[in-house]
Amino acid sequence: MSALRPGLKLRSFARLPAARTISTTPLRAAQPYFSNEPSGPTVSTAIPGPNNKKAAAELNEVFDVRSLNMLTDYTKSIGNYISDLDGNTLLDVYAQIASIPVGYNNPHLEKVATSPEMITSLINRPALGNFPSAEWANILKTGVLKVAPKGLNQVYTAMAGSDANEIAYKAAFMYRRQLERGGPEADFSEQELESTMVNQQPGSPQLSILSFKSAFHGRLFGSLSTTRSKAIHKLDIPAFDWPQATFPSLKYPLEEHAQENAQEEQRCLQEVERLIKEYHNPVAAVMVEPIQSEGGDNHASPAFFQGLRDITKRTNVLFIVDEVQTGVGATGKFWAHDHWNLDTPPDMVTFSKKAQTAGYYYGNPALRPNKPYRQFNTWMGDPSRALIFRGIIEEIERLGLVENTAATGAYLYAGLERLSKQYPQHFQNLRGKGQGTFIAWDSPKRDEILAKAKNVGVNIGGSGQSAVRLRPMLIFQNHHADILLERLEQVIKML
Question: Domain spanning 114-398 has what CATH number?
């Protein structure tokens, strides 16, 4: 049943292009992408139910379950639906913290997973820096690099989003010091070689990465120093002395606060430039998310990011875009920074989550360290995960899923706008218009909404202090949006 008012028709939306290197096909109207997907959620027990509680207690004996959302039966999870151990099936608009792109038990990915190529990569996992297979270049060119952001034609692969960000930081520092020495041919001094072994200058320079308040870039040591979303992430961990700038705090609806928001963004840009010029540990790079995700789904305009790019070029600082959560189609473009229409591309773009692999793209050959083993570890990524990403790209291309996400997102946003007018106290600061299904709003009863949503058959997540964030898969369609809108209204009426 649609949650829209009877008789209300949404205007047709112009089809948006998919990624530059990805072709699109016509949307398949109401036909589900998964023929065996449930027609809707089913909830037969309290959540968690008895089987889930028993299994969680058993798991707790050997594994920390304090962050547990729900134990999942992945053999019964299909498409947009996640199943637990008690027979409950929920519409999943959280998707493993935004990391499932083309549905649970996707048939095409099953074929990829059982291919001879996959079997070889799994049982002979290579140390990629030393012993890559003869197929590695082809795997990259037909997969990871097929969807590389415009102007970025090379990649360093990694294990996870935090790892991708850390090696991007390393690349920025090495690039900066290489320039200061006079170029890649300049050798290291004896003083540098000796001092770095005791963590002292000049071999271990006091350079920095500038990030933003409320940012989230991961939980490893370097990435954690740029993470500013919640104290619990950072407590007790030694941190680098790196600067943070203010991310714009926009007022909604955007069209009613255009002048105020423009002034706020300009203020933040001025702060960025001042920090780059004055911070006591010189800034090697600026790191930013297109939409601050973990920190509360905070948005800024294309003009803000264009301003950031201008500042980094003017001050000879690298510009790194963290697309770990926003990348791979979620915003209605393959990469969220495609919305910005930059004159020149970012210096590096990091990725993970929906790619099911990780790394960073770059274009400037000087971002390769001047000597081997400087950007290195045993695995340097995983060919099996790169094969999965290639399969994901094939599904996105075959089904036109970037286009689908743009159109479905517009449909869903219109329904949420109606709910926000009907229940303004529970749908505050609705945001994400024109950003595919990357939509969020604030509610003073956010945690209660998330808990009650499970009882009506929806798995949904939060971010920041009060935001409800939507992170459905790329196969999320209008009929799924109707279910979500209906169930959200049910939840609101329970509060």
Answer: 3.40.640.10
